Amino acid sequence: MKKLTKLAAVVAGCGILGAAGFIGFASYGEHRTFAPVQADNSGPLQGQIKRGEYVAAMGDCMACHTVPGEPPYAGGYALETPFGIIKASNITSDTETGIGHWDLERFDKAVRHGIGSHGYLYPAMPYTAYAKMTDQDIADLWAYMGTVAPVKQKVVENELPFPYNQRVLLAGWNLLFFRDQPFTPVPGVTAIINRGDYLVNGPGHCAACHTAKNVLGGDVSDALHGGTLQGWHAPDLTGNHKVGLDQWTTDDIVSYLKTGASRQGVASGPMQEAVEYSTQHLTDPDLKAIAAYLQQLPASPARNTAAIAASDPQMVTGKRVMESQCNACHNTDGSGVRHMIPALSASAQVNAEDPANLLHVVLKGAEGPVTTGNPTGAGMPRFDWRLPDDNIAAVLTYIRNSWGNSAPRVTPDDVKHARTQLDAQPWLNH
Ligand code: HEC
Ligand code: HEC
Ligand code: HEC
Question: Domain for residue 308, yes or no?
């Protein structure tokens, strides 16, 4: 049944992409030229390069274009998408395998308009957000990219199965999902909120993860209401009381983005990378602007799930597992330890509809990010080999329905599925 649905979606998807590709090709031509970049390049070059380095941090270019442990920006990092693996390009200043022979115009065409060396770029490269970047930021970024040491490394451009390897179809995708428009400040809101809007929806591309995607990988309309990627759930960033940032102060948000930890949580997985490569390098005024923007977003609709009764058999087992395995760190009342061990009570993560992060963290453990502002980090042990599926399901159901939390049950099947998806170890039955 599941397979059939997926097949139907793929067939429908190809149909839509094909038709839209045909129309899109006519109107979104790959050979289009774009308005020249208008920037003030009169100051000292060193200053511009420095500003460009900051733009690269805002855009988190390093996270995707660098394989950990290899030279910066040499590409080859594999991104898993629902359609297959896409590898990030070599964007060092090498003239043969990188972008050293490009000019600003070509760079702009790739980064803001989604057209690169081989034609349309896959939206795994977040040009849909970068389109909002200012001319000055693009010019500064280009000045900085020129200083990145050249690395000769040819990157296989994509390994997607047919028909997704047909770049021309992306013309149709663009037509459906890409609004190629620069950022325009919203009148009547403060300059700080507009700066935050720019950072979040432009270079910061937070929606790439925090907005859910439709079957074709386009954004759904509920921007920043939460999304799922690579077995992680990127939470709701609106003011939703239970699953969003309602209980986060400006300082909480700033501290999380700067150090990877706040009263509410510790960043793991893809957010840990975003903090390490990007947000920890942003200035305090910029982080405050991001917080101010997020805090004025209208809250996503409340979902009122009733908590599962404490007498439920899964809850009873869950409490027992919690007491024997988790209390030492997370405390009986789920309060945790400030800046080291996240609270499980009043936690947006724990209440999230999608338990992906909880499964991830409990099965495989997690290391908090090590940042300049939080040099120690703290670790959550892995329980994949220590607890069977029903115990993990029970303890997660328990924490999701205790201390004022309420969220759907986690089943042993969910755990079994997550073990496979996350390549976790089996339970050692002794
Ligand atoms: C979320 C991952 C991700 C981030 C972040 C990212 N890129 Fe990319 N980028 C990619 C991928 C994947 C490709 C290859 C896409 C393809 O083959 O269609 C790519 C392609 C490119 C290309 C085209 C290269 C060519 O030869 O066609 C350029 C230029 C580029 N990125 C620059 C940047 C810059 C500058 C930033 C930061 C502002 C950035 N990227 C951030 C994933 C990313
Ligand atoms: C590559 C994907 C990705 C990008 C890009 C990203 N995030 Fe996240 N974010 C996540 C994931 C996944 C989590 C959950 C991490 C965890 O629970 O440890 C998260 C967690 C968070 C949280 C904590 C929320 C909570 O309820 O615990 C905040 C705040 C946040 N992100 C803000 C941002 C902002 C602001 C941006 C843009 C500047 C951003 N993120 C960009 C994936 C991403
Ligand atoms: C040795 C101490 C320790 C033990 C034991 C422990 N944890 Fe954790 N836990 C942590 C730390 C530290 C983190 C933060 C790690 C991170 O996210 O990078 C964490 C994170 C979590 C999170 C993610 C919360 C969030 O908001 O992101 C959940 C859920 C969790 N633990 C549940 C459990 C459960 C259930 C058990 C028992 C089966 C358990 N923990 C046992 C230390 C511990």
Answer: no
**Can you give the residue range of the structural domain that contains 413?**
313-421
Give the residue, by CA position, lying nearest to ligand 2 atom 7.
271
| 279 lies in the same domain as 322 | no
Angle between helices 389-400 and 412-421 (to 10 degrees): 110
CATH for 381 = 1.10.760.10
Which of 143, 177, 211 represents a domain boundary (last residue)?
A: 177
pTM: 0.90
Phi, psi of 293 (to 5 degrees): -65, -45
pLDDT of 430 > 70? The answer is no
Q: Rounded to an integer, what distance in angstroms lies between the CA atom of residue 220 and that of residue 129? A: 14
Task: Tell me the mean pLDDT in the region 98-110.
Answer: 97
Q: How far apart are the first and last CA of the chain?
A: 36
* Separate counts of helices (H) and strands (E) for the chain: 18, 8
**CA within 13 Å, CB half, 394:** 21
The ligand whose atoms approach the alpha carbon of 357 most closely is 2
Residue 171 CA to ligand 1 centre (angstroms): 17
Share of the chain above pLDDT 90, in %: 66
Q: Whose CA is nearest to atom 34 of ligand 1?
A: 61
Ligand nearest to the CA of 124: 1
Q: Is the pLDDT of residue 13 over 60?
A: no
How many Cα atoms sit within 13 Å of 12 on the Cβ side? 9
In angstroms, rounded to a whole number, what is the distance separating the alpha carbons of residues 380 and 382?
Answer: 7
β-strand 366-367 against 379-380: which pairing, if any?
antiparallel
Q: What digits encode the pLDDT tens for the residues 303-334?
A: 778 999 999 999 999 999 999 999 988 988 88
Helices (H), 178-300: 191-201, 207-210, 250-259, 269-277, 284-295
For ligand 1, atom 14, the nearest C-alpha belongs to 88
Q: Report CA(238)–ligand 1 centroid distance (Å).
A: 28
CB count within 10 Å of CB 263 equals 17
Q: Which atom of ligand 1 is nearest to the CA of 121?
A: 18
